[in-house]
Amino acid sequence: MGSNLGFRIDHLRAAARRLAKTVLVEPRFSRVYETAPAYGLDQPPYLNACCVGWTRLEPCALLVSLKDLESNAGRDPDAPRFSSRPLDLDILLYADEIAETPRLTIPHAALAERAFVLLPLAEVAGAWRHPALGRSIAELAAAIDPEGVAVTDLRLTGASDGGP
Q1: pLDDT digits (tens, 9 = 90+) for 36-48
Q2: pTM summary value
Q3: 125-134: per-residue pLDDT in tens?
């Protein structure tokens, strides 16, 4: 989950509430991280978090649901790749599946090279193994440079941080 436009934490919290309705078991959310934009882009910083949940939706149906959440948050589906966005939701892993379609790659193609993904993901799914690499998420997170990624006091659910 990521956001770098508008009230970033509000976008993430709204998505967290909606995701909780999509999963069968209460989802677990990581802490919220503030991260520099990837690829040296001149953009506002992102807030990022990860979620683990269980769903009856197949991966492609889950992707459609996530794209609907992004659209409801104001994301332009025709905006250039890597542009700023109010909400970005990705499927990183889906059990131990490996899949590649024109719309969806599981595990996420850039998962193992992004600290802003691995650090929060390790909090909620550290023991999961990357099905293509055979390494745990915790191992991948420990091996990556964390520069530009900082944990915040913000939370997606539960205790309020008192701010917008």
Answers
A1: 988 767 899 999 9
A2: 0.90
A3: 999 999 999 9
Considering the domain boundaries, does residue 139 fall inside one?
no
Active-site hit among 8, 13, 85, 155:
85
Beta-ladder partners of 54:
25
Helix (H, G, I), strand (E, B) or coil at 17: helix
Residue of 8, 13, 75, 155 with catalytic role: 75
Residue 86 belongs to domain spanning: 2-108+146-151
**Number of domains comprising the chain:** 1
Choice among 90, 96, 103, 135 that is catalytic: 90
Distance CA 2, CA 112 (A): 17
> What number of other Cβ atoms are within 10 A of residue 125's Cβ?
19
